[in-house]
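WARN retry 2 of 3 for item q-0093 after timeout on previous attempt; input resubmitted unchanged.
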Amino acid sequence: MKRVSELHVYNTLTKSKEKFEPLREGQVRMYVCGPTTYNYIHLGNARPIVVFDTVRRYLQYLGYQVTYVQNFTDVDDKIINKAQEEKSEPLALAAKYIDEYFKDADKLNVKRADVHPKVSEHINEIINFVKKLIEKGKAYEIDGDVYFSVRKFDDYGKLSGRSVDDLLAGARIEVDARKKDPLDFALWKKAKDGELSWSSPWGQGRPGWHIECSAMSCKYLGDEFDIHGGGSDLIFPHHENEIAQTESLGEKPMAKYWLHNGFITVNQEKMSKSLGNFFLLRDILAKFDPMVVRFFLLSTHYRSPIDFDDERLQVAQRGLERLRNAYAQLEYGLKNAGSSENGAKLIAATKNAQEQFVQAMNDDFNTALAIAALFDLARDINTYSSEKELDKDALAGAKKVFEDLMGVIGINLAVEQGEKGQILEGLMELIIEIRQTARKNKDFTTADLIRDKLKELGVILEDAPQGTKWKINS
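OK item q-0093 returned
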């Protein structure tokens, strides 16, 4: 039931939804801009990480072979400045925060990329890229600095929709009187005294920000690939400059589809360090289950803004608990089910939910509607579980689909993972057995006391024809 041909994506380049048709049949090559590693990642960084992990998962669900590249910017002014503040080496500082990134990303169930290139390990590729741009007359060197000639790329501004003339007054343009044009941007920066640098044909220096992604994406995916992703804040100047550099050299479209996620806001203002309203991801993970945070990030369409606060995370937590409880019902039902003729309802509901999920994801990865389909399936599972007779095959089919679709959005279904979860499951089975013994012995006072005390702790017991079930109260 995998409908590859029906997938449509919104392409920032064309400002429209387009039928997704990869350059090579059955294969997708993706490049996503990763973090600049000078601090722990914040929630705004986490959104593209989760969004494009989910895009990758869905493409794999459809049967595509996906090559996924996500870089680390470990050479940057911010890293150098932070290292000077902390009296440490820039590359050591960056390496530390790359390790911390993986700790946070792993908690969010983000799959590792096929390649995680670092700028510091691709200096030769970057230098060669810059040399070729100079040879083609697209770039020039002045006193150890190398600049890209923006006006020599006719399509400059096609991604962001900005004209070259309008950009002259742009606030983010570098000010350097030596440049031939105020719009020209740095490909290679001359090193200052004591600054991190590498030897190059233009002297000691280091790469500019934009050239890094051009060189690394070309190395691992070629000068033409399928999807380039990142946050909306990267459209200009970063992705616009990537296009100019790469297409000036390769003379073909850099990426066929450009996908960008929306901002996270706090009280309707964009989350940013400059406003002081950003939240480190690990501080949030200290208060909330990582799967709740992932669920929160996917409960809104990726191109729409999300307004963040604890209350919205609590809503996401209750929603995820509904899905986990439905899954627990499936697992419990399978332990007690046999062959029955009343499985048709659940089989039909499962098929419908799967179709609705795929339809939603095929419409530009609409995870909000896809999650709505999962809630519908959870409701139908709960309704079916109250039947006197349950069909094992229907339950097994629903469980497989439920697991597959939750896997697409990257959510672990277990309330607790690992050894602690097994202990919790065993304890609850023991408590339920003690309560059942009390009821058989007509000791209803003890049975009711167990039920009421568990309720106070947030655990609900439900007596059904097949036995007693438990769930965490949402």
